[in-house]
Amino acid sequence: MPKVIICGAGLVGALNACFFARRGWDVEVYEFRDDIRQMEHVPGRSINLALSCRGKSALEAVGLKDYIVEQGVKMYARLVHNQDGKTTNRQPYGQPGEHIVSINRRHLNEVMITQAEEYDNVKFFFQHKVRRMDMKLGVVIVENFLTAEELFVNGDLILACDGAHSAIRRSLMAFPQFNFSQEYIKHGYIELNILPKDDKFALEPNVFHLWPRGDFTVIALANTDKTFTTTLFAPFELFEKRMGNDKDVVQFFSEYFPDALKHIGEPALLETFNRVKPQTLISVKCEPHAFAGKVLLMGDAAHAMVPFYGQGMNCGFEDCLVLSEILDQCKDDVALTLKTYSTQRCRDARTIIDLAMYNYQELKDLVNRKSYKLRKKFDLFLNKWMPNTWVPLYSMVTFTRTPYHEVVEIRKWQDQVLRRTFNVTLLAAAVGGAFSVAKHFKLF
Amino acid sequence: MPKVIICGAGLVGALNACFFARRGWDVEVYEFRDDIRQMEHVPGRSINLALSCRGKSALEAVGLKDYIVEQGVKMYARLVHNQDGKTTNRQPYGQPGEHIVSINRRHLNEVMITQAEEYDNVKFFFQHKVRRMDMKLGVVIVENFLTAEELFVNGDLILACDGAHSAIRRSLMAFPQFNFSQEYIKHGYIELNILPKDDKFALEPNVFHLWPRGDFTVIALANTDKTFTTTLFAPFELFEKRMGNDKDVVQFFSEYFPDALKHIGEPALLETFNRVKPQTLISVKCEPHAFAGKVLLMGDAAHAMVPFYGQGMNCGFEDCLVLSEILDQCKDDVALTLKTYSTQRCRDARTIIDLAMYNYQELKDLVNRKSYKLRKKFDLFLNKWMPNTWVPLYSMVTFTRTPYHEVVEIRKWQDQVLRRTFNVTLLAAAVGGAFSVAKHFKLF
């Protein structure tokens, strides 16, 4: 059987392990952390994530969808919190019933590792740090933290699922014609927590809570333990200038997020601000994703994106599904699969990275604009009457597997249709108006 | 005295060594090649370069300008070669007398190393490869090729002049908020040679020869030995499809560059095509250029650009001059200097990288468009009558030290003036026309 080396046992690495386990390949997964199932506290990335169609489809293919979805909290709409604490603006994500699911990153990761490990052909090597790729030798160089030994590992296929700062990708920087960019945005984030009140959710659980305040925003997603993971996104400059000490932090929250502050509580707020620093947000694009017919960048290693479209994990999970689908089509011909995958996926990744960056603007501000709300309502209205013809952008991204680049093409077509309709309507109104005037003056 | 570690003894590293030698600092330069003064053949980058004002100013500051300029060939204009071999289109670079200088890369590099070595406070370490920077320890890790030893070197200031694929920069990829992009263009290049004819230049020496053919181009620059370094730029795809074998190569040159082919000669052309592959062209942007108040990226390590504005070396040389100027202003306060330098230079580097990419289009095609030629003539005309008020874009970049970002702002202002003038002229013509018509029909 062919052998696959998976670098990283995070979300995308672990899901790939499940896919290749089922495919019957020999699977070796190298992960620098200890086994997260045995860790008390897992440092690093955000605590919960929004699972939508693309992620669900991938989980379904390895038999995990229903189990995972059951353990999450469904969200049917965005609920906008005004500065006075009122929530007058509720924006459904799609048609009644359409939803995304708030899930716990760690739990999801654990379930996938356990699932993969049930297969005899899968081995996890924890505390093994992937250091780099030697393209001349065609091997991955891994450091065993337990023995300080350096291992040279090799397989028929090498999947770099080692995250936004991928060591494999760094070794490929001088690969001919490798285009790459990494961009940090001006915003950082801090995660807070809203605890249950009288053993109940302190806020409505089945919505995505949003406090947009122009250049900074708070969001809150429910967890099954009735807490809410609550995240403040703000420019680093603002963290420095307006949240530099305890007094300022409280003052800032009192002014802009009085209702959220009430639920978070002053002591907990200050404890967090004194313990952690704002985290950075990075956007990574590269092309190609495949190298030398053998190495493939996947997930954040290929396309880290800002979190404002909720597609980072979903896109990474879809990577695994797309790879599996193309392997099927190509009858396990690795070189051909990688070529096809890279051509197709680079374009889609580029598109969703750009959409996420665009939504970075939208979440901050647009949601409160009349024109934006009107278009949203209009799109959902058309969608209701023409469910197959008119699908809003957000719905195509979130509730379908339409390739991301096609989503944008369809949106352009929609914009064109609307512009023309608007022009025709204006013309009709003008002509109608002229006739009325003419009639009024009895010109005919 | 403070100590500076210079990574790389290429053009920018060697010039920095001259600057810091004169400043009286202790200077250590680490270079992975052997001493090029003792090498028979130096592999790698292109053979000659166009020196203009920014480069000259930097050389002047270390007392090398006159010596270097004397050893180059002056170029006063672009001379466009048509497909029929005729040269009907001559575009002066500026006012009569204004010129750029074609110089030999290797000679220039050798002169600077020799100049720097005359100072007791300068040491060159050849065959010492800079491997990486350890930011925690604050040291540069260098491998001595002669002993296979790994050295940890340190200084008050570390200058990464280690080129477009900088190892120092690669170690900084995970530095917080480091924005970076590298982009290969679709074009590659192959260098050819036109030999002297009867011990004379085969073509007019004091112009930049240009054979623009839409998506591919040949250029030729004279050398003091009466040869011409002749470069074909073309899409990699075209190299594959149209120049895959001897017959096709000759056919291609006969069709598009008959006059150049005559001078190059078929045997020499084929010898080159069989020996070398087309080289890639990369554009690198990053921000910041300075790290931890101690490390500075300079030259191609900070801003590799496509060669179509002839500013790569000039910008790198100006880096050295700007650093020296800011060190003077800041009285050798390294941390303050680096902060000031990075803020100022990132913006300018970004601008010239973009301009070079824009000129990539221009050189390929625009030079043959009427509108382009007209604007060029018009700019030079205005410049002649208002030399201080109206300086064409190319002249500002090439013949002044106006910061690159200001150059673009000034150009935008010029465009605005022209647009308004054009509108006023149109209006005047329209009004004039109306009056004539009115007069004709004796309406007054």
UniProtKB/TrEMBL annotation, chains A, B:
The organism encoding this protein is Steinernema hermaphroditum
Describe the reaction catalysed, as an equation.
L-kynurenine + NADPH + O2 + H(+) = 3-hydroxy-L-kynurenine + NADP(+) + H2O
Start and end of every FAD-binding domain? 3-354
Q: Which Gene3D superfamilies match?
A: FAD/NAD(P)-binding domain (3.50.50.60)
Biological processes, Gene Ontology terms: 'de novo' NAD+ biosynthetic process from L-tryptophan; anthranilate metabolic process; kynurenine metabolic process; L-tryptophan catabolic process; quinolinate biosynthetic process
Recorded topology in the membrane: Multi-pass membrane protein
Which family does the similarity line name?
Belongs to the aromatic-ring hydroxylase family. KMO subfamily.
Q: Which pathway, per its entry? A: Cofactor biosynthesis; NAD(+) biosynthesis; quinolinate from L-kynurenine: step 1/3
Localization (cell): Mitochondrion; Membrane
Q: What is this protein called?
A: Kynurenine 3-monooxygenase
